[in-house]
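Exercise 7. Predict the structure of DegV family protein from marine metagenome.
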Amino acid sequence: MTVKIVTDSTSDLDPALAQKLGITIVPLNVHFGQTIYKDGIDL
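Solution. The predicted structure, encoded as tokens:
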């Protein structure tokens, strides 16, 4: 069985450390009115 660790961008995990440990960070979506922003990408 293969296990993959995934967390969202609010974990405050350093991207370099996450990459070193094989952890995937997905951006949290922030809704402001009708607009959706991706944490760490658009914000």
